[in-house]
Amino acid sequence: MAEKIHTINTNKWIDNYADYLYNYAISRVNNSDLAKDLVQETFFAGLKSAKNFKGKASERTWLVSILKRKIIDHYRKINSKKGQAEVRMNFYNDGENEGDWLEERVPQKWDNTSETSIENEELKDQLEACIDNLPEKYAMVFRMKTVQEFETEEICKELDITASNLWVIIHRARTQLRKCMEDNWFNN
Q: PANTHER family this protein is in (predicted)?
């Protein structure tokens, strides 16, 4: 039996998926320009690997899985020493500090995955502690939306809240989490 060939219509991606992917990205990175860039990178990666689409999932699901990897790569980059140097480097646009001199001074990463695993575990523990310190409703909504990936409608129905109330709670939870992580992780 011949394998079924699945075709995708890349010309319709922007019309069909751009808004959904943008909303998915913005809820995870909380930066409009970055979310747009990640969606653009997702479309580009999808175009490059369109021949690998097997049709085991919908096009949207397939694109979301690519976007998830792009988001993870983004956070890995900014949490690495080299990524932090690149971010600081972009702070200077002109003058005597212009250039990539800072990145060159970053030590190369060793092949010691145990240190990275420990750092990741400590980061996860600190994030969990910060989530636990949120008001109970904030923590519940935040976990349902961002960790368990429930749809907005499901959360609203389950907790008997409006969609706008949900997004206010998410925003407040993120603001408190950012402060907690800055105070307890990034500034240590």
A: RNA POLYMERASE ECF-TYPE SIGMA FACTO, RNA POLYMERASE SIGMA FACTOR HI_1459-RELATED
